[in-house]
Each structure stands twice: as C-alpha cells, then as structure tokens.
C-alpha cells in the first residue's frame, strides 16, 4: 500500500516537472518567434518599393548620419554653383541668386549686396560675360558641430574676346535646419566668406 502511494507521489512529481518543462519551452518559443517577427516587421517598415517603368525597385531608408558628409558637400557645391554660375541675363542672375540665398544666412546676402553695389552684375550683363564655376573639392569637418567647411573651385569668366580662369577658395560653417523645397538638404551656410579669388 505504501509502495503504491510512493509511486503515485513520484508520478505526480514527474508529471509536474514534465509540465513545467513544456510550459517553459512554450514560453521560450513564444519569445523567440515574437522577437523574430518584430525584426521582420522592422525590416519591412524600412523598405520602400518603387514602381518605375514597370519595374519594381527596392529603396532602403537610412538615417541622416549615414549620408551626412555627402549631403553637406552637395549642399555647399549647389550653393556655389548657383551663386557663381551666371549668364548675362538679369532674370537668370536674380533666379540663381534667390535660390542660393535660401541655402545660406545673411553673410551670403551681404556678399551679394556688395557685388550689386559695385555694379558687378550690371557689368556682366553689359559686357555679355558668362561665368561658370567648377567645384574642385570640398573639405568638411563633421566631427564638431556646426560643421566647418572649405570649398576649392575654379571660376571661368568667358568674354567674347577672351577667357579668364580664377581660383576661388571659400569657407564657412553648416548648421542643420528643417528640410524644405527650397532647402532639400536641410543645411544652412553661416559665416560664409571668400578667402581667395585670384587669376590663374
């Protein structure tokens, strides 16, 4: 009789241990599959599919830090292209300068006002002079904020009778601002000044 009670007690103990192991295994599998499904949802949320000419293209999202230096360089290059690439047409000059001024602070507006006051743009129109800019390199220090930059470029001034090349070196710093249609990179050039602009 005592042997049967001992066997029943042992059987209940083994059944409890087995049930506990099954419950713990279920909890482990549930946690594992929840974690895996969360990862899969996160990857799916960071993926964008674009339909272009009947083909599906996979586009991935990335954080601003991943492309910070590339966007900063393009912002600086775009500003310089707009500010210095000019045609002998008042409307084109005003359009380029107004776009450039969205990308910089009052230091660029001050430089524009100085050139306007000296008659620089009027001389471009009167002399039928085309001016273009080729950005050679842009150095940006992204380790400290605001980001300091230095831009090295070559300026071509094309007259009917001659062509003049000039070196252009400018510096300033970049501050992060809200992106907009007029400022798609979300940077603002501050304390912009020309360090060198001389004939080659």
CATH A-level architecture of the largest domain: Roll
Sequence of secondary-structure elements: HEEHHHHEEEE
Domain tally: 2
Main structural class: alpha+beta
Global morphology:
elongated
Helix content: 40-55%
Rg (CA only): 33 Å
By CATH's scheme, which homologous superfamily of the largest domain applies?
VirB8 protein
Please provide a written account of the structure.
With 200 residues, the chain is of the alpha+beta class. The termini are far apart. The longest helix is centred in the N-terminal third of the chain and has 44 residues, at 2-45. The protein contains 5 helices and 6 strands; from the N terminus they run H-E-E-H-H-H-H-E-E-E-E. Helix 2 (68-84) packs antiparallel against helix 3 (90-101). The strands form 2 sheets. Strands 3-4-5-6 form a 4-stranded antiparallel beta sheet, covered by helices on one side. A two-stranded antiparallel sheet has the order 1-2. The mean pLDDT is 85. The chain has 2 domains: 2-60, no CATH class; 64-199, VirB8 protein (Nuclear Transport Factor 2, Chain: A, Roll), CATH 3.10.450. The chain has helices at 2-45, 68-84, 90-101, 106-117, 120-126, and strands at residues 47-52, 55-60, 130-141, 147-158, 163-176, 187-199.
């Amino acid at each position: 009789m005592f042997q049967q009670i001992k066997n029943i007690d042992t059987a209940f103990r083994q059944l409890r241990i087995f049930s506990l192991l099954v419950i713990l295994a279920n909890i482990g599998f549930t946690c594992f599959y929840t974690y895996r499904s969360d990862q899969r949802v996160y990857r799916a949320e960071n993926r964008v599919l674009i339909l272009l000419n009947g083909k599906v293209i996979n586009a991935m999202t990335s954080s601003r830090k991943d492309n910070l230096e590339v966007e900063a360089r393009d912002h600086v290059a775009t500003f310089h292209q707009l500010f210095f690439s000019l045609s002998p047409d008042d409307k084109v000059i005003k359009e380029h300068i107004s776009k450039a001024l969205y990308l910089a602070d009052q230091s660029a507006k001050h430089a524009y006002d100085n050139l306007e006051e000296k008659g620089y743009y009027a001389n471009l129109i009167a002399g039928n002079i085309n001016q273009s800019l080729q950005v050679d390199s842009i150095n940006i220090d992204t380790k400290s904020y605001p980001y300091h930059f230095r831009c090295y470029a070559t300026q071509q001034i094309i007259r009917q009778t001659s062509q003049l090349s000039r070196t252009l070196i400018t510096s300033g710093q970049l501050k992060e601002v809200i992106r907009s249609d007029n400022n798609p990179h979300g940077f603002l050039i501050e304390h912009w000044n020309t360090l060198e602009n001389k004939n080659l």
